[in-house]
Specification:
Layout: E1 14-15, E2 18-19, H1 32-45, H2 47-50, H3 56-67, H4 84-97, H5 102-108
Antiparallel strand pairs: 1-2
Amino acid sequence: TCKSSVGCHAAGTWHGDTVHEGDEPMGVMADAELRRHRIMMHGLFDPLWHNKFMTRKSAYAALAAELGIPVSKCHISWFTKEQVPQVMRAINEIWNSLGETYESSKRKWR
């Protein structure tokens, strides 16, 4: 077996103007390497909104703007291995635009 996996949207949840029926995949199939990269990207990205530097919606809007893609196409679970370096640079640019770094934000929220 390939051990690739992706979750499904819960029935009744919304994304944009679409309500999910419970069988739509949340993202692109991921092997172990891509799952590790996605965990790493979430680890750098999620503190932007978990620690109230911005809302989750504005964090994804900023990431989409940095990547030059529509917000509707911007979610970490949809990025491929090839996009990882670009996404990581974009997340770091967002931190820099806030006058912060991921490391300095960790010190503030201990």
